[in-house]
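[Archive record]
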Amino acid sequence: MTFSVHTHTGAHWHARLAPGATHLVMPENLCFDENAMETLTALERLRRRLETVRVVKGRPSKHSRGRTRTLGGYTAFETMRRISPAAALVLAAEYERCLLRTGGRSNVINVERWDNSVFDTLWKVGFFDLVWAGEVEGPDISADEVVLRMQSGDTADPIEVDKLVEGLKLLYPDPVETQEGLVHLYGAMIEAVANVMNHAYPTSWAKVPPAALRRWWMTGAVDRRNRRTTAVVFDRGVTIPVSLPNWANAEGWLRRMSRRVRIIPAIDDPGSDGDAIAAAVEEALSSTGEQHRGTGLAQIRGFVDQCREGRLRIMSRCGEVVFSPRQQPLVRTYDVPLEGTLIEWSVLL
C-alpha cells in the first residue's frame, strides 16, 4: 500500500510503510459521548507519537524524486467516520503543542481518502493550519452544523473568549433571542480559562511544561437546526484531581470524598478521579450557597442549570462527570487518562 505525502517544503511524494514500522489507526468515531474509551486510547497513543516527533527541515534529495520512499510510521485518519467538536479540539491542541515544541508542522497523509464530515470538522477548527497536507479545498461553512476555529492562549485575558462567543452569536439567525444565554456562557468560560491560568500549571509540578506550552484551547459549535450550542475549553495541565488537595475548599472536599469512597486516595491514584471531580463541584456549589453565583467550578456548573436543556461534561485525568439540570450527575472513571482537563457545555438556547 502506498501513501500520498506532502511536506513542509511543498514537495509531494509517495511512500510505503517500512518493515516493522508502526501506524496508529484512529477509531471510526472519535467522540467522548459515544465512544469514550476508544477515543481516550487513540488520543493517548497520538500524544505519545507527537511527543517523539523531530521535524527535519530541508528539501529532499533530487536523486529521490519520483521514487517510492519508506515511511517510518503514520496516523491513519482515513479510518474515521465522525469526530465531535470536543475531540477535534483535543486533537488539534496536540498538534499545536507539537508545532510549538518543534517549530515545524507534522505531515498528514492520504487526505483525499478522509471522510468528508471528518475533514470538514477539522478544517473548521483550524487543524490544517497546524499540519502539512498539500493544497486542500475548504468545506461549505454554510452547513447547519458549524464548528468555530480553535482559539488558544496563555493568559486569562477575556478577549479570546469574547471573540468565540461573538462567533457563536453570529451563527444564529436571531441573535437577540440567544443573547442572554450567551452572556451567561461567556461568564462560565471566563471562569474555566481563569482556572487554567490559576491552577493548571503550578511551578511546583514535576512535569510543568515550558512556558510556551502552558496554554488553554477552546472552540464552539452550533447546530442551527436544533439550536444546540457547544463550547469546549481544554488544557494540558496538572488536572483537577491532582490540584484538589491544595484547593481553598480542600477541607470540605475531603469530607465529601470520605463519604463517597470511604478512603482518601493518594494524589497519584486515579482510581477515584470521577468521584473526586464530582465532590469538588458539590463543595463549590455548597460554598457559594447559590448555584448561579460564585466563581470557579460553581459558575462553570451553574450556567447549565439555567438552560432549558443542557449538559456539562468535566473530564480530568481519568475522571468524568456529566451534569444535567434536575438529574443526578453521571460519574465515571476510565482506565486511560485524558492528560489534562476538558470542560464542555452543550445547551439549547
Notes: Confidence is low (pLDDT under 50) at residues 56-68, 290-294. The radius of gyration is 21 Å. The longest strand covers residues 12-25. Residues 257 and 274 are 11 Å apart (CA to CA).
